[in-house]
Amino acid sequence: MFKPTLGIIGGGQLGSMLAIAANKLEIKTVIFCDDIDAPAQKFSNDFVHGQYNDQNKIKEFISKVDVITYEFENIPYETLNEINRIKPVLPKPSVNRIIQHRLAEKDFINNLNIRTTRYASIEKKSEMDSVEDLLPGLLKTVTMGYDGKGQHPVHTLESLDSIDIDYSKGYILEKLVKLKKEISIIITRFSNQKYEIYEPIENVHEDQILRNSKIPAEISDKILNQSKLWATQIAEELKYVGTLCVEFFIDRNDNLYVNEIAPRVHNSGHLTINAYNVSQFENHVRAVCKLEQIPLQKKSNAEMLNIIGDQIIPYRNKKFAENEFFFDYLKKDIKDKRKMGHLTTLIS
After folding, report:
1. Which residues sit opposite 250 in a β-bridge?
2. Could you tell me which CATH class the domain 118-175 is placed in?
């Protein structure tokens, strides 16, 4: 059976775990990353270092692979589209184009009759006066930004004076939900109406960074079924191939809202490595490389803790119990608010 060489754009922890999953399936990988110290190169068969708009490096990368995927969504659309003309990029670049832009993403979701929080486009400060009914809200850049970057909580119009905002970047103002809890759905779509869906994962954030995740989520059957249905509808409408994450809010009245779509494997799904027979990473590789689809089986309930910044130091010398699984992302520099590793604990 022919097994393609998989190109992965991006060399962080998600790229590392994709490469590890590919190794298990005897799929060769080539990492293309703009970081010379990218940790994913330690797990791949080959590594191309260069900027994502470097034509020579793009050609070198393309020449070494059969199919391409990516570990983060902020790769220039032009780069993905250019590569896709020569070798298939999955998920397809048009997916990324929608999800890179928060307004386009929200419009796409609403057009499927799926609920999001109310929102408005903001291109200058004076426009905030006409959307005061969306306060308290969260002002986000329409492109880029993750783990709380490019995001500003706004409680009143007066509070804007104390926030340094460059409105030329373009923003979206989202009305805050009276939050009960947050969940995510990880779904791998192989082709039309063929997918594997993991059970909803309950998430807790601190300073807008994911702190921990657990399964099962403490939610009603109604929320469980609705979140799976909406994630499936989104994946089908996008004609998505690979693993996708849909993040949800649940308000105090038990209403469900889609918060964001991540067109890739996701931090909240790390616990699938140990809690399921097939992880989100392996399923992604299987889908984009057209390998066999294997029915999901949950082996255990689980909790995952993100290890941030210098919290990693004591973990590197710690002994772990049989039901604990420590992952060090092997990043060269320890930085404040940087995800350095995670710990998954299996719970019977």
Report:
1. 181, 256
2. alpha beta
From the list 128, 93, 134, the residue with the least C-alpha distance to 116 is 134
Q: How many residues does the chain have?
A: 348
The values of phi and psi at residue 296, to 5°, are: -75, 140
| pLDDT tens sequence across 194-219 | 999 999 999 999 988 999 999 999 99
Does 286 score more than 80 pLDDT?
Answer: yes
Query: What is the tens place of the pLDDT at every residue in 32-75?
Result: 999 999 999 999 999 999 999 999 999 999 999 999 999 998 88
Residue 21 contacts residue 272 (beta carbons within 8 Å)? no
- Domain 6-89, second-level architecture: 3-Layer(aba) Sandwich (3.40)
Q: Which of 168, 169, 185 is nearest to 226 (CA)?
A: 185
Residue among 220, 207, 153 at smallest CA distance from 180: 220
Write the CA distances from 347 to 187, 232, 323, integer angstroms.
23, 28, 8
| 179-347 CATH pick, 3.30.830.10, 3.40.50.1100, 3.40.190.10, 3.30.470.20 | 3.30.470.20
SS3 190: strand
Report whether 56 contacts 47 (CB < 8 A).
no
Q: Which two tokens stand for residue 91?
A: 């998920």
Residues of the chain with CATH 3.30.470.20: 179-347
Torsion (CA) 13, 19, 20, 22 in degrees, nearest 10:
150
